[in-house]
Amino acid sequence: MKTSEIFEKRLQRHHDELRWLYMELYENDSMFAELCGQMYEYYLARSQKMKALDQKREKNPAWFRGKDMLGMMLYIDNFAGTIQGLQKKLPYLESCNVNYIHLMPFLDSPEGRSDGGYAVADFRKVRPDLGSMDDLAKLSEECHERGISLCMDFVMNHTSEEHEWARRARQGEGEYMSRYFFYDTYDIPAQYEETVPQVFPTTAPGNFTWLPEIGHYVMTSFYPYQWDLNYRNPRVFNEMMYNFLYLANQGMDIIRIDAVPYIWKELGTQCRNLKQVHTIVRMMRMIGEIVCPGVVLLGEVVMEPEKVVPYFGTVEKPECHMLYNVTTMATTWNCVATRDVRLLKKQMDIVNGLPKEYTFLNYLRCHDDIGWGLDFGTLKTWGMDEVAHKKYLNDYFTGNYPDSVSRGELYNDDPRLGDARFCGTTASMCGVESAGFEQDEKKMQDAIRMDIMLHAYMLTQSGIPMLYSGDEVGQVNDYTYKQEPGKAADSRYIHRGRFNWELAEACDDVKTVSGQIFRALGQLETLRKKEKVFDADADCQVLDAGDDALLCLMRCKGKERMIGLFNFHDMERQAVLAQEGVLKDMLSGKVQDVRAVTLPGHGFVWLKMQ
Ligand code: GLC
Questions:
Q1: CA distances from 242 to 36, 173, 188 (A)
Q2: Residue 117 Cα to chain centre, angstroms
Q3: Is 175 part of the annotated catalytic residue set?
Q4: Whole-angstrom Cα distance, residue 125 to residue 134?
Q5: In this structure, which residue's CA is closest to atom 11 in ligand 1?
Q6: Is 100 helix (H, G, I), strand (E, B) or coil?
Q7: How far apart are CA 610 and CA 601, in angstroms?
Q8: CA–CA separation, 112 and 483 (whole Å)
Q9: Residues lining ligand 1, Cβ inside 6 A
Q10: Is the whole model's pTM more than 0.85, yes or no?
Q11: What is the pLDDT of residues 138-167, one digit of tens each?
Q12: Taking the CB of residue 349, how many other CB atoms lie within 10 A of it?
């Protein structure tokens, strides 16, 4: 087939629906025609190699869902200085079994006013100290040769105040002001403030910023230097789609659409998850399928489960390919602090009951804080009040609760709501930091066990496991951000420290903490890639293990079955399973009696049923 025919065929498949949705939002024929024309241009600009990959992936649309997928998210500068530096470190990432790298924001962004790169000043320029678009293309090429996929953020809700559009808007150019939300009096902003919650109530209160030089307020849901884009303006939608396609063409395999629930604003609402957001995401999915069908959309929807799942769309009209399993993540840490897995069982039953095409990205920690978005309705029926329980969790994880081994800091503590969130690395939350500080070997062994157990549990879940760089070697919190003026107020930097290569160099030495964690994760990851029970379409269900401190997951694929048992208590526990038969420990090969599986505090087992 000629390349123009391939494009035409894909366009024809989606044209009517795309046009329909576009007209519903914009009623603008000429802008729609422009969009279609530009889509063709970006298709033409796509490299032959990428086009070939697109065609391969179109034949195997589940390519990204295989059990061999293992992600890691990392900051280029923290990890390797520059993009070229990162390219040299690919063998290390391969030794971590990683074949999906999420490069944290690396586009041009003003230092000190960048929100970790989430305030983009130029969607087509790499931050100069990290390298260039050319370096990125080379990195992507080598990654593809090695079978590694690359992911980047597409920050679509806002631009930096330094973006060209924002600069021109600030100079009073109407065309550019209309790409944002500008108001010359506080009347409308005041009305918004009545219904719109705050993202950063302490570090960036309010949803508007006063610009004295032009006598206007501008909408800034996140930081004051992140100006919300106005997607009611078709120029904004079109241009942002061109940016999306441009970035896809740099060799990206996965595009993370940042803060997507926020992109449509409507007075009198919370300005989150509005139906127009879904229209836009659906259009993006179609635009991607027409121009670059090999690219996967990962939606960042940090919301309660009922709000998250609709971002998958429907089987006929899909939106995102992948979403973060955020409630499961938060619930996991809740269960660590309470030593009680009941809430996690409930949450996992919900997730396991969803169609298997819905692919979740599972994680323990990421670059953001942990917001306690738990099922408080259920907790209430168990006698736990929301505010008091959040306080308990925060006290526990900051190490301010008797016997808590966790270390970390609060984030956006809103005293009005008692709603603080939490920051810290996995290892620090598991007690590696406190045990190291106290030089307590027994505590250290407990901490390592918990860290490995949580990773084993994450690797047992259906979906794509995503490691946070540093976790593979048990890296602890980094407090140096407090000395950097542009970062000091944002405690998320506590878990965004420079990667400690000394730990990585010791990863072969099992006498070290990093060596023990690294080796254990490696064994688990290798098993996961190999064993059929970890296939994306295997069944996963929660079983009862006769103890509220024990989580028991069973995975079945054909005749193969495995059981994962995870002890969330610091004391030894015994599982009581209703299963019959012989169980073999998948790691040690030892045979276990099904009726009496004993787990040390924070221990786990992966058992295969014979
Ligand atoms: C997303 C990012 C977060 C950032 C925010 C604003 O939630 O994960 O780090 O602060 O978007 O762009």
A1: 11, 22, 31
A2: 15
A3: no
A4: 10
A5: 259
A6: strand
A7: 26
A8: 13
A9: 115-116, 118, 155, 222, 258-259, 300, 367-368
A10: yes
A11: 999 999 999 999 999 999 999 999 999 999
A12: 11
